[in-house]
Amino acid sequence: MSLGKAVLEGDRRALARALTLVENQHPDAEEIVRDIHGHTGHAIVVGITGAPGVGKSTLVDRLAGHFLAAGRTVGILAVDPSSPFTGGALLGDRIRMEGRGSGVFMRSIAARGQLGGLARSTPRAIQLLEAAGRDFILLETVGAGQSEVDVMGYADTTLVVVAPGLGDDVQAFKAGILEIGDIFVVNKADRPGADQTARELRQMLSLGPRRAWRPPVLSTTAQTGEGIGEIAEAILEHKASMERDPEVGVRHLHEAERFLRQAVAEQLADAAVARAKASGRWAPLVEEVAHRRKDPIWAAREIVSGEER
What we know:
Elements: H1 3-8, H2 12-23, H3 28-36, E1 44-50, H4 56-69, E2 74-80, H5 94-97, E3 104-110, H6 122-131, E4 136-140, E5 157-162, H7 169-172, H8 175-179, E6 183-186, H9 194-206, E7 217-219, H10 228-244, H11 248-279, H12 282-290, H13 296-305
Parallel strand pairs: 1-4, 1-5, 2-3, 2-4, 5-6, 6-7
Helix pairs in contact: 2-3, 2-6, 4-10
C-alpha cells in the first residue's frame, strides 16, 4: 500500500511519516501530496495567533477537548521556533496535549527561519491532516507580532489571542494583526485589566471597515476552560457566515493562485540553487556576498540566469 493511501485510510503511523517527509522536503513527499490532493478541503481550519505568553497552546488544548467531546476529530499543527543547530522544533507543545487520545493528532513543526509565523511545510501538512479525516485542524503560529499574518491565508477562521498585562495593549492591536482576526479572544480574563483590554479591542474594531462578518471579542480563561464553548460556537457561526458570502469563491481562487505562486517560487529557487552548486558557483558566490564584494541581489541574478556578472 502506498503511503498516501495509508494516510487516507487513517493510519496514524503513515500520517506521521508523511508529515516528516513533507517537513524535510523529501522528494517522495510530492507523490504523497499528489495522491491525497483530491481528498482535501473538507476540514475546518482554525488559525490561532498572538504574542508569546498569551496562552495560545492552552487555548488550543481546550478547544481540542471541546471538539472531541462533541464527537469530532482534531488535528493540531503547532509551529514552533527552530533550533539554530538542528533545525528542529524547540517547544514540544505535544507534551502538553498528549493526553487527548486517538481523537487528536498533534504535530509540532519547526518554522526553520520562515517569516509570517508559520513554516514552509504548513499548507501540505494541513492537506495531510484533512486527507486523514480530521474534522477540525487547529493551526497554532509561532508567537506573532504585528506583521506575522500569513495564517489568514491557510485558515477558514483566524483567532487573534491577546491577554491583559503584557505591556501597551493598544500598541499590540496595530493594523496587520488586527485586520486578520475573525474572532478576538481576551485570554486570562481572570487577571486585572481584562475588561479594559476587551473594551479597547471593541473600540478599535468599530473604527475599521464594515464587513459582513463583525469579529466578536470574547473573553476566556483557558486554564480553567471558562469561555471555550463560546469560542467554539463563534467558530461554527463564522464558518456558516462565510459559506453564505458570495465573495468566498473569489477568495478561494485568490488563495489557490497564491499557493501556486508559492509552489512555483519554491521549485524555481531550489532548481536554481542546485544548478549553482553543481556548477561550482554557489560557494564562491556565498563567500563574495559574505565579504561584501558582491551584492546579494546581483548574486541571485547570476544564480537565476546562470551567467556571471
